[in-house]
Amino acid sequence: MQEKGNISIHTENIFPIIKKFLYSDHEIFLRELVSNAVDASQKLKQLSGIGEFKGELGDLRVEVSFDEAAKTITISDRGIGMTAEDIKKYINQIAFSGATEFVEKYKDKGDEQQIIGHFGLGFYSAFMVAEKVEINSLSHVEGSEPARWICDGSTEFEISEGDRTERGTDIILHVNMEDSAEFLNEARLQGILDKYCKFLPIEVKFGEKDKQVEDGKDDEDKPKYKTVKEDNIINNPAPLWTKSPSELTDEDYLAFYRELYPFSEEPLFWIHLNVDYPFNLTGILYFPKVKNDFEMQKNKIQLYSRQVFITDEVKDVVPEFLMLLHGVIDSPDIPLNVSRSFLQADGNVKKINSYITKKVADKLGELYKKDRAEYEKKWSDIGLFVKYGMLSDEKFYDKAKDFALLENVDGEFFNFDEYKTKTEALQKDKDDNLVYLYSTDPAKQHTFIQSIKKKSYDVLKMDGQLDSHFIGTLEHKLEKTQLKRVDAETVDKLINKDEKIESVLSDDDKEKAKTIFEKAINDKNSTVAVESLASDEMPVIVTMPEFMRRMKDMQRQGGGGMMMMGDMPDQYNVAINANHPLVAKVLGSDQEDAKEKLARQAYDLALLSQGLLEGEALTQFINRSVELSTN
Fold first, then answer.
1. What one-character-per-residue DSSP string does 28-45 give?
2. Is 153 annotated as a binding residue?
3. 169 assigned binding-site residue
4. pLDDT digits (tens, 9 = 90+) for 449-458
5. Residue 338's CATH number
6. In a domain? residue 378
7. Residue 36 annotated as binding?
8. For residue 283, which phi and psi values (nearest 5 degrees)?
9. Which domain holds residue 414?
10. Alpha carbon distances (Å) from 314 to 224, 237, 323
11. Which residues bind ATP (predicted)?
12. Residue 600 annotated in ligand binding
């Protein structure tokens, strides 16, 4: 038997042929061919299960091998096999989907979701690395003759009698040494198999590997070991996400996490996804301990289609705020283009996206209700996901507001309703607005916090990566509620209750004090005002307006603030406490030089309390302090 002919290229399938050149990496060829081999094995298992194949299945293992001298890579299976007619139908008619036809024929007789690929088109990825490709195949159908197909990458092919004696298929790639010699390398092939075929449902063998086995005892009765060879099975055919959650333990989930991310810390917790309507989706998502670098955390979710690795860029499938999660998603319903590398945002993808958001929200709500104390312990990590979600997803905000927490500087946690109850008695201003006070750096802002606590007000800790943005969201969402940073105003102005404190200074003395301090400070970016504050408050308080503080915080934490803030000089309000004894001392001094020196010292002390005093000004403050202490 020998036949020559031309591969059939029809107008309706010319586009997929062009698209095959859009594979992002030539290494994809091995994924496609091994997937096809697994697919052929799955088909045979299904036919056996419904009684249409009555022979022995035997070992269905797929084997990948290479011969550097012969310049070939071979992918072998013991699956369904092909006759010459099958090859003409499925290989010569490019983009004719054998898997699609098979599923349609047997959809009522078994689990069609086990069929991985579209045999035919993926096969042609072989020509990205090969100058000639051979197929040597024997069909499972009793009485079939083996068939051989050879093509050099043009539209011409040759079919002749093959020499395979066992059912299945060998795909032999004669590697193009000019462009693809790199693939005739054991480590390179092992790396590709590890990346794409790690969880295929049929065992895949790639050569052999060394194994240490015990070999008797030495003179000191200690065990001796020797090295032996064993088959190098590159995949785990039954990964955790394919199993029922009811049969898995916490250690199973942790062990699988270590398999996926060998050098990572243990995750906080996980979610097992398993849905078959209105779409098919399985997977496990882990909540990791979050590091400071957002970008380093992303692209850790792996997308599979029937256990074939597709990509770790899942932004269309997973909501943006959950890109920090780790784990695996597997769905045959996620549409992929010919390269299987780019997601298309269609209805199924959007449904899956919404489903994952709901599952994550449900899991967080469950953890919050089940063990509030443990939830609070993990809040520094959990909170990042929750806040990210509340900032970016309206539906998630609506769910998360019931389990989102606010932490104060004393380490106490409150949900939104609890915190409102805690503060509404004391922290409403003259217009009946509830004012939440917050600190972005409790150590640096300690002086302001202590002043606030004297009034029995509470202070929230907002020092997280997203808090500068989260503050604005809270103001937008919480009715008649404002948030103000502790150093944005003097304490009486932070929550303006329209309560007047009498000044011990006359209006004339206030003007004199203002003039002295303005001259001593000598800074055009600072606005000086003399105010009637409590006598136990600081003599000078330096604040930055809330708007400017917030914009600078947002810009410092990665955008979101107004870019112009980076070019604007810092603007400060300087409040001189008319009721502090030091101000009276400044006014009472006989010498102008002494007045300015004391005023400058009080101002520098206010700057020092916020970490704003540095360089020459700090040196002058230290020298002045020594001088004043010795007089």
1. HHHHHHHHHHHHHHHHHH
2. no
3. yes
4. 999 999 999 9
5. 3.30.230.80
6. no
7. yes
8. 155, 175
9. 405-494
10. 48, 23, 8
11. 32, 36, 77, 82, 97-98, 169, 340
12. no
